[in-house]
Amino acid sequence: MLRYIARRIASLVLSLAVASVVIFLLVEMVPGDPATFMLGTGAQPDTLAALRAQLGLDQPLPIRYAHWLGAVLSGDLGNSFTYKTPVTGMILDRMQVSLPLAVMALALAVLIAFPVGLFAASRRGRVADTTVMGMTQIGIALPNFWFAMLLVLLFAVNLRWLPAGGFAGWDQPVAALRSLLLPAVALALPQAAILSRVLRSALIDTLDQDYIRTARAKGLTRGQTLRRHALRNALIPVLTIMGMQFSFLLAGAIIIENVFYLPGLGRLIFQAITQRDLIVVQSAVLVLVAAVILVTFIVDLAYAAVDPRLRAR
Amino acid sequence: MKWTLILGAILAGLAIVAAAVSFVWIPYDILGTDVPNKLQPPSAGHWFGTDQYGRDILSLVMVGARTSIAVALVAVGIGMGFGVPLGLIAAANRGGWVDEVIMRGNDLIFAFPSLVIAILITAAFGPSAVNAIIAIGIFNIPVFARVTRGGAMPIWTLDYIRAARVAGKNRARISVEHVLPHIANLLIVQGTIQFSLGILAEAGLSYVGLGAQSPTPSWGRMLAEAQTFVTLAPHVAVIPGLCIFLTVLGLNLLGDGLRDALDPRLKVMRT
Fold first, then answer.
1. With CB atoms 3.0 to 4.6 Å apart as the test, which of A98, A156, A213, A223 could cross-link to A264 if both were Cys?
2. Taking CB atoms and an 8 Å cut-off, how many pairs form between chains A and B?
3. What is the C-alpha to C-alpha distance for residues B60 and B30, in angstroms, rounded to an integer?
């Protein structure tokens, strides 16, 4: 087990290191000098040079990377070029929207997928199974941002049950949850479709095992066997997919946040791109990528804890 | 023939035919505006209605299909062009350091949230259809590499491969002449799935303004532009979204149908 954890930690560190280099280099390639952007095109050359020196832009690339990485590791992501406020604070603020949104979406996806997957597996090969699986194909093919627009049209514009966009803030918890509900549903449905298909096929694989036959022979009903024996064993691949989905939901929220004008990390990235606030883009993307890599790492460890065969590899 | 294959081929075929026909004919000019007729609902004159500039939505959707299909197709080409050789090399050197380097490199790319990096790439190099292709294509590479390696590995243990080695063929030649034809079906099915994912990704990037730029119509950008008018004229948003949805659904069904028709044992990746 220790060897497995050590290998996973090594790969985690390597992934984070490569991610930091890629993100740093990509942002370096963005046309437009932040100093020129901050001072405008009419700035005096010596003022520009002074600001470039102050921002460290006159240093060679590896030095700039080392400085940046050192600061990032100490929790200092620098100051926004546009707002002149610490980027760490801005990102933490936005995480208060993005993180609950991803958690809500995953919870919804699980709530939908489990009954659907169980139902389809218990009726495998029958009309009900084919119908449910056909419906999941629809869920997978739905572009979530389009589905989000349709949800707004129905639940916000026509029925007026939920807000069409914006975020109320956590000082009003009910209103905040209401503003996250439609975006969470839009994110969750395609993921629920994928998860229910994975759960169904994992359950069907498990249902062919001898111990299931034994359980049935003992007199357990089909439903009892499914819930007590098959589901528990089918959970391993399902958990892996759920981990991947959480990462996807964190990153996938970028577009949905734009549909609903939610002040999350995704919207921050887009605003920063249009404002050429490179330090914010760099830091927000880094945080997002690091979060995704970390979640994958945690899922890998959880997976090994559940399935001893993996540890032995 | 299974119904999934037929329905999938019809839906995906519709988008491809619409794109192909748009090169020679579209109902109305898409560059000209007709403001007095803006946001008209579907009618006999305009089957899909008109947009906020009075342009015919059917014509826009037909030309937009070109962008979606071209971006997704070239992105699959990039993925296959780099991923398949990498997968073949890894399988030919299975267990060796070359295999290890290729597969760990793949794992690294997999660890990245593709959408975020695609956004960063298009932000760094400027929003355009070409940069969207590159951004989507890069993330297709590890998928094809992994699927190719997975499909090729068992083939290397077969007797006729041993016979080919005894006959003096080197690994590269065996990979191309004997292994590749065996995994062609697998690659076709995976290609269909990546094609559908590419269409979704292109639509997403264009929706946030990082894909095809004006005046090139694209389904994603049509949706973004429609967002402001969705309450006044829902069809402006419903139709391009429906086009994306039906094309992706068609390609997914086609992928599943092809998998069952070609070889039900095929193991494809759904990412």
1. A98
2. 114
3. 6
